[in-house]
């Protein structure tokens, strides 16, 4: 028996098993239906969509006035849920009432971030850590399949050429199936690395849309939560929220972004750069394909993503060796990933 051939195939099998295990970790959890409007908003668009939905709800019933040019004023401080309380709390600490600052404060508020924690606990969304581990393994396996293993196999083939007992089948030919299997597995598994919403989350969001959006007389806020602010019938409100999100992205994209303090530290934030605003939203960010209706916090329109006007995440979100720093869609993205990407705009 060829010991080197056995070792090659054993290493390849171990890598494939590891990839499968990591994929299963990104899809864990019991699943289940969405419990309220803001869970639907978070699942469909991340923290940015939650903030937009809450601001629209408060403006439409007169408790908050959003006027031009992008200034919010409290009329009746009456909150019906923790997210609305977060809006009022952030507004109380923002004397200027600038809408883009208010939106960012709501996105980074623990009440909004904890929605993501609850969804993750039920397996509807996946935190960055399992996805990043899967991404690293995908890149490693692809690099090994494309560069390391073929090179080693060619060297072994050359060294063994003409040796006594040579069967005539080159070593590199014997391991070609291993290369193809490892490469294909890494590519397939890598497709899961960029998806923040699990299959259970996709199903839950689709069920919510069927029950609350695709029915006669449906609530406009349900449409905003699941489809984005372009579903607002009030075009002035839509324009102000859109502009606020874009301005928010522009204000975070400059070289001074790292100096911006985090208004609402979150217990999950353990980034080494936790002093900047983008690190305040380490756990939940934009850029994933939800499997229905666009990526996180995306309305399919132009705008910045993950805190910069050029839709740059500030980190590599590659799947299996292809570097892609795009945050999924070029509309509004929400909060930063564990590599420190920031907040975006909603189109």
From TrEMBL:
Is Transmembrane helix among this UniProt entry's keywords? yes
For the keyword Iron, the answer is no
Which stretches does UniProt call biased (Low complexity)?
Answer: 251-261, 307-347
Give the transmembrane ranges.
Answer: 6-23, 137-159, 171-191
Region Disordered, residue ranges: 249-276, 296-347
Keywords of the record, alphabetical order, are:
Membrane, Transmembrane, Transmembrane helix
Q: Where is the composition biased (Gly residues)?
A: 296-306
Protein name listed in UniProt: TIGR04222 domain-containing membrane protein
Which species does the entry assign this protein to? Streptomyces filamentosus
């Amino acid at each position: 028996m060829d010991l080197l051939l056995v070792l090659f195939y054993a290493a390849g099998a171990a890598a494939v098993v590891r990839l499968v295990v990591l994929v299963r970790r990104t899809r864990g959890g019991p699943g289940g239906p969405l419990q309220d409007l803001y869970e639907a908003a978070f699942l469909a668009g991340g923290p940015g969509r939650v903030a937009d939905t809450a601001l629209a709800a408060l403006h439409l019933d007169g408790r908050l006035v959003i006027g031009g040019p992008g200034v919010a004023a409290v009329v009746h401080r009456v909150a019906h849920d923790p997210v609305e309380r977060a809006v009022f709390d952030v507004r109380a600490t923002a004397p200027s009432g600038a809408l883009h600052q208010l939106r960012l404060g709501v996105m980074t508020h623990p009440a909004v971030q904890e929605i993501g924690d609850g969804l993750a606990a039920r397996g509807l969304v996946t935190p960055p850590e399992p996805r990043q581990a899967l991404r690293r393994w995908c890149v490693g396996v692809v690099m090994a399949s494309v560069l390391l293993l073929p090179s080693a196999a060619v060297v072994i083939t050359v060294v063994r050429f003409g040796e006594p007992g040579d069967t005539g089948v080159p070593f590199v030919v014997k391991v070609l199936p291993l290369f193809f299997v490892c490469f294909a597995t890494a590519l397939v598994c890598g497709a899961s690395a960029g998806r923040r919403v699990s299959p259970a989350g996709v199903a839950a969001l689709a069920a919510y849309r069927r029950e609350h959006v695709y029915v006669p007389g449906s609530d406009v806020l349900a449409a905003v939560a699941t489809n984005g602010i372009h579903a607002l019938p009030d075009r002035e409100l839509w324009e102000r929220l859109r502009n606020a999100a874009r301005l928010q992205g522009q204000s975070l994209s400059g070289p001074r972004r790292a100096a911006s303090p985090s208004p609402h530290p979150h217990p999950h934030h353990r980034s080494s750069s936790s002093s900047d605003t983008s690190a305040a939203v380490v756990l939940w960010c934009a850029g994933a394909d939800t499997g229905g209706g666009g990526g996180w916090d995306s309305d399919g329109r132009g705008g910045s993503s993950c805190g910069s006007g050029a839709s740059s995440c500030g980190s590599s979100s590659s799947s299996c060796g292809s570097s892609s720093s795009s945050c999924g869609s070029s509309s509004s993205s929400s909060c930063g990933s564990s590599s420190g990407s920031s907040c975006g705009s909603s189109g």
